[in-house]
Structure formats: structure tokens, C-alpha cells
Amino acid sequence: MKIGEASRVSGVSARSLRHYEDEGLIVPGRFGNGFRDYCQSTLDRVLVIRSLLESGLPVRLIREVLPGLADGSDAGADVACTEFLHEVQSYRDRLALRIAVLSDQQAALDAYLQAARRTDL
């Protein structure tokens, strides 16, 4: 199917589909006239990509691990899955640290605002 239909079916904008292709996350087929041709397996992959991106994972990590998760072979799937889960855990830990820092900054600003309001009264 062409990009417009693929966009409607997947719920992902045509622009995002082109971006996923530019990033090497998907490789749609091509019609003789050069138009992109999206098959169901590519659309299934797009939904996985969208889900991973919405969870906050960077494109770099998705690009590195997606081939190993989607190639269908059991030989490297366990290793790829283990590495992927390790990377996701590491990303989550870094995110938790950033949240803690931001929470501390928010608490400091709250304390400042509370003290400033007391002096204004």
C-alpha cells in the first residue's frame, strides 16, 4: 500500500513514516515509479517503533536492537532481548535520576516561593 493508506491504517503520519525510513528503522518496498510500498509486516514494525518511541526510548536504541528482535530467528533472539532489556533498564535508571534531580529543583523553587510570599505579607 502507498504511504497515505499506510498512514491511515497505522495511525502514524506520512512524515513519521518517512522519518522512520530515514533513520533506518523501516525499509518499505518500492513500486516501479519509485513510490513507497508498505506491506503488513512493515506496518506491524511501525506500530512497535511507535510504541517504543512513546515510551521514551531513543531512536538510537531502537535502531540497534530492533533487527535482533524482529528477525524471527531464535539463535540471536535471546541475546538481543537480554541486551535490549539491559539497555532499557539503563535508560530507565538514567531517567529516574533526572526525575530525582528535577524533583529536588522543584522543591527548592517551592521553598523559595514560599519564603518570598512570607516576606511580601
Automatic annotation (TrEMBL):
Q: Where is the HTH merR-type domain?
A: 1-68
Domain of life, source organism? Bacteria
Matching entries from SUPFAM superfamilies are given as: Putative DNA-binding domain
Pfam name, any one:
MerR_1
Q: Which InterPro entries match?
A: DNA-bd_dom_put_sf, MerR-type_HTH_dom, MerR_fam
User: Which keywords does UniProt give here?
Assistant: DNA-binding
Transmembrane stretches, start-end: none
**Which GO molecular function annotations are given, in alphabetical order?**
DNA binding; DNA-binding transcription factor activity
Return the PROSITE patterns for the record.
HTH_MERR_1, HTH_MERR_2
The protein's matches in SMART domains, at most eight in alphabetical order, are given as: HTH_MERR
PANTHER family in the cross-refs:
MERR FAMILY REGULATORY PROTEIN, REDOX-CYCLING DRUG-SENSING TRANSCRIPTIONAL ACTIVATOR SOXR
What is the designated name of this protein? Answer: MerR family transcriptional regulator
* Organism of this sequence: Jiangella anatolica
